[in-house]
Every structure is written in C-alpha cells, then in structure tokens.
Specification:
Blueprint: H1 2-24, H2 31-47, E1 54-62, E2 74-77, H3 85-117, E3 120-123, E4 129-133, E5 140-142, E6 145-149, H4 158-161, H5 163-175, H6 178-191, H7 196-218, H8 224-234, E7 245-246, H9 252-260, H10 276-286, E8 289-297, E9 307-311, E10 315-319, E11 322-328, H11 353-363, H12 387-397, H13 402-406, E12 411-419, E13 425-432, H14 436-447, E14 455-457, E15 460-462, E16 464-473
Parallel strand pairs: 1-8, 2-16, 4-6, 9-11
Antiparallel strand pairs: 3-4, 5-6, 5-7, 10-11, 12-13, 12-16, 14-15
C-alpha cells in the first residue's frame, strides 16, 4: 500500500506537469527544450515524492511534568486488524497491469532485435547499420540500426529510390538518441499504466522526435516538397514496433504544417519554464515532515533557550546538538555516596500493592546511602543490543491483561525507572496512570528487564533516570 500511495503522488505530479506543458510550451518550436522538459518532468515526478525535507523543532519539557515523548514507544494491541479485502484487490490489479505493460514493452524489444538479427546488415562509415529485410515494413530506426524493406534499398542509385531521404530522417533519430528516450518513458509508463497523462506525454514526446528528425533531414539541403511526398507515401504503412522510431501517419499533418509554417520561438518564451518551479516547491512542501527534538529542563527559572542541570562539578555536556550546562550542587553532592531523599509522589491516587512498593522504593534511598540519579549524562544508558532490541523485548513481553481487555481499558502508561551503576533496573515508578491492571503490567515488564549498559559521567558509571511509555490499545 505504501508503494501504491507513492504511485498516486507520482500520478498527480505527472498530470500537473503535463498540464503546464500543454498550456505553456506545446505550441513553441524549441523542440529540444520541449523534449528535455517532458523527460525531466517525467523523471522528477518519480523523484520528488521520495525527497522529504525534515524540519526540526525544539520542545522543552519541564521536569516533573508528563513526558510528551520518549526514546521509544511500544503498543500492546489486543487484536491485530486484518488487511481489508479491497486493499488486496487493488494491489493485485495494479501489479498485474504493471507486469502486463512492462511485458509488452520487452516483447517489442525482442521482436525488433530478432528482426535485426535475421536481416542483411550493412555497416556505414558513420557507425550506423542498415538492416535490409525481405518483410514489408515501413522504415524505422532503433539504437544505431536502420531497418529497410528490400524495395526501399537501392545501393546503386539511392537518390532515385528515396533511400537518401529515408536515411537522412532515420539518422536524425539515431544522432539524437531517441530510442533511449522511448525506453525510459516506456519503463516509467509501466509503473503508471493507469495514468492517462503519462501516455499523452509519451505521444507528445514521439511527435517531438519526428519534428527533430525532420529538421535534421531538411538541414542537409533536401528538397522539402520531395521529402513531404516521401512522408505521405511511407506513412501509409507503419513499422508496428512501439519502441522504435518510424514514419507514422498520426503526426504527419502536424509535421507538414510545421515545415511550411515554421517560426522560431523568441527568447522571451523561455521564461515560461519558470512556471514549473512553483510545482516543484509545492511538491516538496507537501512532503515535508516536522521532527520534534525534546529537551528536559528543570522547573527553576532559567534563561530562555539555556538548559542548566545540577551535578557534582561544573561543566558542559553536548547532547542532541544542544549544549547542557552543569552547575555544581554543593548542598546535595558532598561526596560520591550521599543519602538524598527524593520528592514523594503527591498525586495521592489509589494504586495497587505493586505501585506502592515501587513508589516507596524511589521515595526512600537505600540504607547504604545511594547517590542521586542523573537526568542527563555524557553517555546515556543503553539496552543490550540498542533501541531495536528494547522494542523487541517489549513486544515479546508486554501482555494485555485479560480483565483490562474485557473492561475495555486502554491508554498509555508512562514508567520511569533508574539504571543503576551495574546496569540493573530499579525503582520503577508510574508517572502517568491508566488503570491498576495496565499500570501493574507496565511495572512488571520494567522489572523483568535484563541488565543495561550503565550511563557514564566523567568516565565513571552513575545512576541515571530513564522513561519509557507503553501504550495499550484495543482494536
């Protein structure tokens, strides 16, 4: 479905770009520019949805308030919803259409190659290869090959058979690498087979190819009237290969009109290309994302934009592209091991025995005198294996209590705990409660965690506070 959504964005961009081309540039005679615009907008339509501009926004969360975000979040879902049937059908139809379109293009390439392999080949001094076949086909070119029927090939007197005119036209296609354009657009059209705009763009591109080949032929001094008669004669039959450039009837009227009434586009018309820039800007703006960078701050009055933490000594810590200034707290930190009483939980709500034991443990320090836990240190604690393993551990160990599911209880439980100097997890405390059952399950999972890699400050392992949210959500 993500790929389908991406393709819908591409389809919208192709339609908008093609609309601008038809309204502003299709009547202009700078064919090379129009060709570049069509190819560039087709490729840009596929690239722009992949370009995501990330905007960072700093959000300061004061200590003691409910955390708005954490290092990770795990959802315990009672029942995983099934994929809707319509999504399966749409996905199947899309990929079936893409495979059919791509297969048709490859089949045409194979047919052209087999025809060339079975033809009588004559290498020319300019690198082109004339392939003469006994089949009745309209002259066409593909890559550096020019395919002619036996009746169109007369090496003795080419000027009498019209071979010189045909070769001049087809060499115009080869010199400007029109076959590569068709392969590129046909490949993109396979992924956009449902979009009419890509097929109209492809048709206009082939018309531009003919205009450029006609201009290349006439630039060699060929008689225009004789050349037009040849076009009318050869356009009756078609080469029959969608990946090749041949003389077709569909654009013949426009091509003759272009030769008779050609008027060079003035330089001011180039300014119309600037109309494409707002489309590019709008596409990038719609695809932009805003990422919040959360920073925890003490509730004390501090200068705006400046983060100050208390520690054992003065210093500065760089974290998340922000500089945190550490001020020595002489009243609290008189040594490495000092007994410090933390603020008690004053919410006063009714909790289970597990909550009461957890809250009491964090309110009262150990008997041996444990140092105060840090909020931020130079090297934060890390779960064994990193964040991915933490999320895996939670997904495998968080259980949705049956009674809570029956009572339709759901919400996000935020649990704070301390990573000790030896990596063990202690003193879990529920910062945001949902229900007794869900709160107890979140505390149980935290208590069951293995040892972490402890946090480091000034080269020593220290106690560090850590917070994770666990979301319980019903279907």
């Amino acid at each position: 479905m993500e790929f389908l959504i991406y393709n819908l964005k591409v389809a919208a961009l192709i339609a908008v770009f093609y609309m601008f081309y038809r309204l502003l540039l299709s009547r202009e005679t700078f064919h090379r520019v129009n060709r570049i615009v069509l190819l560039a907008t087709a490729v840009a339509s596929f690239v722009l949805p992949l370009c995501v501009i990330t905007l960072h926004q700093t959000v300061v969360v004061k200590a003691g308030s409910e955390p708005q975000v954490s290092v990770g979040e795990m959802m315990a879902i009672a029942e995983e919803p099934a994929v809707p049937l319509w999504q399966t059908i749409v996905t199947g139809v899309f990929f079936a259409g893409m495979a059919a379109t791509l297969g048709y293009m490859l089949l045409n390439v194979l047919r052209v190659w087999l025809l060339i392999r079975s033809s009588e080949r004559h290498t020319q001094s300019d690198g082109t290869v004339i392939c003469v076949t006994n089949r009745q086909v309209s002259p066409f070119s593909w890559m550096h090959f020019i395919v002619l029927s036996r009746c169109d090939y007369n090496p003795a007197t080419p000027e009498l058979s019209g071979e010189a005119l045909i070769l001049a036209h087809e060499r115009g296609h080869i010199c400007q690498h029109h076959s590569l354009d068709l392969l590129l657009v046909d490949t993109l059209a396979a992924m956009q087979w449902f979009n009419p705009a890509i097929w109209m763009l492809r048709q206009d591109l082939r018309a531009i190819h003919e205009y450029e080949a006609d201009a290349a032929a006439l630039s060699q001094g060929i008689n225009m009237r004789q050349y037009q008669y040849l076009l009318i004669q050869k356009a009756v039959s078609r080469c029959g290969y969608s990946v090749a450039n041949g003389i077709s009837h569909s654009t013949l009227k426009n091509r003759i009109h272009m030769m008779l009434n050609y008027k060079k586009t003035n330089g001011a018309s180039w300014l119309k290309l600037l109309a494409m820039l707002p489309v590019v800007g709008a596409a990038l703006a719609l695809n932009a994302e805003t990422v919040n960078d959360y920073i925890y701050e003490d509730t004390q009055q501090q200068p705006q934009g400046k983060i100050v933490k208390k520690g054992q000594r003065d210093g500065k810590i760089k974290m998340n592209a922000k500089t945190i200034e550490v001020k020595a707290d002489k009243e609290t930190f008189t040594g490495k091991n000092v007994t410090v009483k933390l603020d008690a939980d004053k919410q006063g709500s009714k909790v289970t025995k597990a909550h009461a034991a957890a809250n009491k443990a964090i309110e009262e320090p150990d008997s041996n005198g444990t140092a105060k836990a840090f909020d931020v240190v130079e090297q934060m604690p890390e779960f064994p294996g990193g964040m991915a393993e933490l999320m895996k551990f939670l997904s495998e160990n968080v259980l949705y209590p049956a009674e809570a599911e029956k009572a339709k209880q759901q919400g996000r439980v935020i649990v704070s705990f301390i990573v000790e100097t030896d990596g063990t997890v202690s003193n879990p405390k529920v910062l945001k409660k949902v229900s007794d059952l869900l709160d107890a399950e979140a505390v149980r999972v935290v208590n069951s965690m293995p040892k972490w890699k402890p946090g480091m400050q000034n080269g020593e392992a220290v106690r560090v506070k850590y917070t994770i949210p666990i979301t319980f959500r019903l279907k």
